Amino acid sequence: MRDVERVSTVTDHRLFSLEVENFRSLRQVTLPLGPVNVLVGPNGAGKTNVLEVFRFLADIVHTDLVPALDARGGFERLVFHGGTEPATYLRIGIKGSWSPTPGDRQEEYDLRITGAPFTREETFRSSADRHVLRTITVSGNSAITRAAGPDTSAPLPEQPGDEIGIQPLSSGLSTLPRLSDEKFGPITEQVAGLLRGFRIFEVNVRAAAQPTLAPLRSGDGIASDASNLSTFLLWLSANHPDAWERLHADVADVLPQLEAIEFDHVRLAGQPTVLAMLQERGLREPTPLPDASFGTIRLLGLLAMLHDPYPPALTCVEEIDHGLHPQVLELLVERVREAGDKTQFIIATHSPALADRLKPEELIVCERGDDGSSLIPAISRNKVEQIVRASEGLPLGELWFSGALGGDL
């Protein structure tokens, strides 16, 4: 029976840029974002901290500001520790398009947290409709909303707007989307919804290889650690045969000994489970997923994520090339670009072989400065394109490995 309850991601939900100040090693970072963004650079350059910014915002949506800070050791642990003077605040700003309003508009969310004493200030700017730009400012124990005309360059009117109370240590990103008030709730829910679905995808090979409960619950996709891999593959084969055939063809392309993926249904501790079985050429019996190689399981998990018909708006992947043969990378990059129509990617890697397959606009070089701060991007997109042209088309990975693009390995 086909699954009809899951709702597809709206592909117009995009982030255009990220601005960060004093968040761990990200002292002052302005990062333009496209459909596919690949961070390259040495260990400690700050690639993971870029991903952590989004995880932090998602945690605020799910749990509120103070719990999200406490989970990271508090403000003092999260704020930038480099330089000659201690940082007294951290700031995160995102710009993008996340409202359902048609048109080419840029919407914004900005969060500033200060310590000693602890305060937070937030600003939401969103297109309420074709003719109104609404701004919500959260400060102290109140949230105020004001409306302006379509000319976003004009200052907001000075007259008081609508105001509601809010706990002084709570985040508007967490609390305001719960309100039924049409002047506060829907506008904040749009950005919260984009961040709520954010995921860092990393295949846990041991968990992905195990039998998983069946069937897949309506609304679930591939888990962020691929721990429901067998169940997801079964669901995909039953409900989205076109996507299943494309995934199967990709696996067969890079694993030519694989003839088919089958499924074994067993009961464990009284629960119905499913386990993927790999039918390989020359073997009399199919290979249970736990007996497959590390690279095979990880590849299946990545392809399952890339062929998910209903991905979140933003997907981050650390070390996408880990455990994979270099010949697989061409296929992965192609599928990432295709999936970029549905989900925006931020990917971290150390692999020159992966970088070789990228376009200049997809590559973000990361370095660490003498004061401990991350330089991201360490080199502008225009400069990358100039270097590529001057090199007469040498692959990006080769240019990076040679030091021509900076960001030492």
Automatic annotation (TrEMBL):
<feature type="domain" description="Endonuclease GajA/Old nuclease/RecF-like AAA">
    <location>
        <begin position="17"/>
        <end position="58"/>
    </location>
</feature>
<dbReference type="InterPro" id="IPR041685">
    <property type="entry name" value="AAA_GajA/Old/RecF-like"/>
</dbReference>
<feature type="domain" description="ATPase AAA-type core">
    <location>
        <begin position="260"/>
        <end position="356"/>
    </location>
</feature>
<dbReference type="Pfam" id="PF13175">
    <property type="entry name" value="AAA_15"/>
</dbReference>
<protein>
    <submittedName>
        <fullName>AAA family ATPase</fullName>
    </submittedName>
</protein>
<dbReference type="InterPro" id="IPR014555">
    <property type="entry name" value="RecF-like"/>
</dbReference>
<dbReference type="Pfam" id="PF13304">
    <property type="entry name" value="AAA_21"/>
</dbReference>
<dbReference type="InterPro" id="IPR027417">
    <property type="entry name" value="P-loop_NTPase"/>
</dbReference>
<dbReference type="InterPro" id="IPR003959">
    <property type="entry name" value="ATPase_AAA_core"/>
</dbReference>
